[in-house]
Fold this protein.
Amino acid sequence: MNPHNKSIEELKDIAAQVRRDIVRMVHAVNSGHPGGSLGCTDFLVSLYFRVMKHNPEFNMNGEGEDLFFLSNGHISPVFYSVLARSGYFDVKELATFRKINSRVQGHPATEEGLPGIRVASGSLGQGLSVAIGAAQSKKLNNDPQTVFVLMGDGELNEGQVWEAAMYAAHHKIDNLIATVDRNGQQIDGPTEKVMSLGDLRAKFEAFGWDVMEIADGNSFESVLPGLEEAKSRLGKGKPVMILMDTEMGFGVDYMMGSHKWHGVAPNDEQLQIALQQLAVQEASDY
Amino acid sequence: MKEYTYTEKKDTRSGFGAGLAELGRTNPNVVALCADLVGSLKMADFIKENPERFFQVGIAEANMMGIAAGMTIGGKIPFTGTFANFSTGRVYDQIRQSIAYSGKNVKICASHAGLTLGEDGATHQILEDIGMMKMLPHMTVINPCDYNQTKAATIAIADYEGPVYLRFGRPVIPVFTPADQKLEIGKAVMLNEGTDVSIFATGHLVWKAILAGHILAEKGINAEIINIHTIKPLDEEAVLTSVAKTGCVVSAEEHNRLGGLGDSIAQLLVKTKPLPMEYVAVDDTFGESGTPEQLMEKYGLSENDIVAAAERAIARKQQ
């Protein structure tokens, strides 16, 4: 069972607080990736505050726990905020994001020992393979828990993803739920313009996956039932793929839907506008 | 010159296969992965005895490295098997991020390293792998010299916590190290004590260094010969103790002159006590097709090349 098990109303408040953290973190160092972080906030909040069985008293092997891997490591701000606010480390440490002598590196890393991170990510396309390995380790250990992995859609340009997709079906990795953040944007523009992904459902089905959609990755009313549906499909001989539509920059109107906010931080004025839009019942900014 | 005898010649990759099979019987956490080369890597015994702990990855080495990294989470000790070229250059970023930077307990086991792969030619004859691997923080790099030592190395790395690159090869070469000799990671092995020149050799060049030692002895030169099976971490104490006695150095390896064992020794000497040093290594070029013997001769990796290098080093010392 999830250690927090929050209601939808509570999750919405947590998500707003996480989004406040994201814009404040990237603003403070004038770098980092707010767009994808804001878009995936509801998904990560759902996992860590409702769906996953996990223990913030972090141990690397995570036996008996659900595990989450972030393959698109550049959306580290949302990962760090969710880890901190779900109990892995002090939220005050978010203030050290991307600064010298910090555990909160630009992209997630294990080197400095930040609790909650199990593998470095940032160079794209590697997380699905790692998650598959962790899932196979669970099978070998007779550990019934689930492994989750999140990838960006632009990340699917990387060939290793498709090597891993082929492997997961061949080896029947059915304790794995992979999710693609289908926000349709990558650094140089819309995914369909930069390198068209085409029919992802057909592609993953052809690779042997059980594919489903979360129609609105920025609504808990869509994400929570979607994750429950995905879990119900486990253990049936196929890896499970969720194609999740999100809006890049969700929650901050001037960032929404544009690749321009992939890796750009807001200025002072833009930050204040963003924080006004991200209202919470009781703000507890770090 | 100390005599070394052997009764048979075997390939070092078979030493890896034998070591892996033994680990399969003794360590339940050991798992093996292979990228469509189980025959070449001699993994058949492990697979036969532990089918549930073997994972065929197909020709997808990048994925194999990521999967191996993931398997460590939960306590498995993955041994990946493919050719040295596909174990390093092809997957450098995967090893760098998912294994080395992430501090994962993966054993990257690489066969067919160097020129002695032979007829397949330069596409497969990697001569840069030691350099690439030793530059990665956290990575241990081991290049054993014969069947017995490769088997011992395979067993030793399972008990060591951290990423390891284990390099071995295809040709059959004399088996001269004791079958019961354990490999101590990072501890060089003295093969012949001498006073005139220190020869530090690794991998297939160790036996050639012994042959060179006999030729040098006939010329009245007393060579100290040391087997550096662990290139990183380098046994600095063994190197410095030896050169304090001999005053000049030869390094010998089946690798590019750039980035290999010789460079590690040279860097140590520059930091401590610069001395005349000669490299026996491939001179910054690619290989080509040919028999292993022809290639070792053509690219300057024969016992005679070691002899000549020793004589040059001694001459420089006396200048």
Remarks:
- Chain A has a mean pLDDT of 97.
- The radius of gyration of chain A is 17 Å.
- The longest strand of chain A covers residues 176-182.
